[in-house]
């Protein structure tokens, strides 16, 4: 495969598409699928065939605002229809070329106008199972350009210059990581994609793997060329069967087109990728635990150094990046590092995809430039808290993150700002809570999660999270004392400072951040046996008092 | 180095051939343990002693290590599932939107706890960490199919339909 051949495929697709006067794109992502998108698509195909018009009905990945599903976009006018019932298929086809159907039209201009699409540029635009669709949108051009026109060092330089930082949560500079693996000695190196999106409440990586799988594969191949690897693994959660099937198809298609395998792009570069299934362990998102799991063992982390960049899979130098990080690579190679560097805030460049969920009007996937205010994401893009309730906090970073209160909403989103507020960027879950959520109970929820997910290797995490859970349960049932609170705070520090891996080190964050911003709720629970949000059941404790 | 001959299949059940296929594809390498256990579970629905022994012996993995892996990962089950499975998602978004009420409703209706199956083997009640359909929280899986915006009433109805079958 050469760039000319890619261009030819793209031209063929465009030519094919000109045969149609209209395109009806149906979002088939999990949220829309669970609302009947499958039947809707069948009905649209049937109606399109019967109409005699030249219509292409295409299934696509996530279009974004899941709460408005099932979503349908009609091109060339980009009319977005929401909450489309199967019965409406005929009306949509009948109205092609006329004024859009007013009752179905989705007016979310505010929602879309503030977003910038880099990672999600193809989501909702292409059929994820067709490599030709991806190629028609400049797919694999970056890989072949890198292979034929750039040195591995040049690729790393471009990624470094772009300022891209790891999207898995930690925010480690991607170029620096690549450089370390490239410099590591060894004739066998590996590239690993972390698709173990274990953070509950986050589904960005699932949507990317399902909606645009080739983008991830292309990013991995470019990375492999840059660091000198010939073998890659994508580690995907078993809970994401659709992602696994889409990636399997994509890998087969890429091999068939000579975009994976030997002598890619008629160069000496060889690279292939295998899928490895996770089996439900949050700790496997930690890189050394993930590697243990790929090797077929229990996912227990180990001490670092040595870092995987020096000694990873089977002791070989290994590059591990997250799905979204790889998804950013091809556009950076295509558009240059300056283009990427110009987006975002001072030390956090580019965009970030967030999964906006919880007590918010427009739930779904959003991609925003770094530096955007949290308030803009929640009030403008998310449409605010529904049902007349009051915003209380937004939780970012999952079990490793924290709760950010209303008074901090004017802070711009960046790795450093979130860290300063006691949370983390994390992989991109953003869960909005209103006045019906009890912050003590939320902290208990996350500690329970960390307790059950602790691998048990180190004592601070294994025993510490269990003790913290007991203390929080006492507070939530009205049996807590101020001594319990003091002990809880003490334990937070111990667990944070002495745990072996990121899971343990960050597990106190939900407790610490709620204590920082919502301490009064803890005090209410302890001193007045009262849960301000009315979530915790304190009946037993109140009766004892009376 | 002696050539390795894999142990005979535990029975002439055709599903063992699928399991064996996964191991052969991976050259009977030890690192294929998790992949193979996935194949066993998707073929048989769960992992029993015979299966774990067979896989461990085939891959030259100590039995203790194989058992350790099976019990470490939540996804693997040592008990056969019921005819139907209700999985309530207990991820953060679902929790915020009242997943605990769904679990309580299901437990009350079935008379069994999380991770258990009714005594007639009809329905299993499971919880999931997150199925990634957070935008439609609270979410449950009815025999693997995602149902969004679930309510305790809908859960009761679904369980009723399954139990009278």
Structure notes:
The complex is a heterodimer of chains A (546) and B (165). Chain A is an alpha/beta fold and 546 residues long. Chain A contains 24 helices and 13 strands. In chain A, the strands form three sheets. Chain A has a five-stranded mixed sheet. A four-stranded mixed sheet of chain A has the order 2-1-3-4, with helices on one face. A four-stranded parallel sheet of chain A has the order 7-6-5-8, with helices on both faces. The radius of gyration of chain A is 24 Å and the shape is globular. With 165 residues, chain B is an alpha+beta fold. Chain B has two domains: 15-72; 84-163, Glutaredoxin. Chain B has seven helices and five strands. Chain B has helices spanning 15-25, 33-44, 49-59, 63-72, 92-96, 99-110, 152-163; strands spanning 84-89, 116-117, 123-128, 140-142, 145-147. Chain B has a five-stranded mixed sheet with strand order 2-3-1-4-5. In chain B, strand 4 (140-142) and strand 5 form a beta hairpin. In chain B, helix 3 (49-59) crosses helix 4. The model of chain B has no long low-confidence stretch (mean pLDDT 94).
- In the residues of chain A, how many domains can be counted? 4
Indicate the multimeric state: heterodimer
Q: What structural category characterises the helix and strand content of chain B?
A: alpha+beta
Largest interface (CB < 8 Å): A-B, 52 and 39 residues
CATH class of the largest domain in chain B: Alpha Beta
Report the radius of gyration of chain B as a whole number of Å.
19 Å
Uncertain residue segments of chain A: none
Look at the structure and name the CATH superfamily of the largest domain in chain A: NADH-ubiquinone oxidoreductase 51kDa subunit
- C-alpha geometry of chain B: elongated
- In spatial order, strands of the major sheet of chain A run 10-9-13-11-12
| Number of extended strands of chain B | 5
Provide the CATH superfamily of the largest domain in chain B: Glutaredoxin
> Helix segment count of chain B?
7
Sheet having the most strands of chain B: 5 strands, mixed
Protein structure class of chain A:
alpha/beta
| Domain count of chain B | 2
The separation of the N and C termini of chain B measures 57 Å
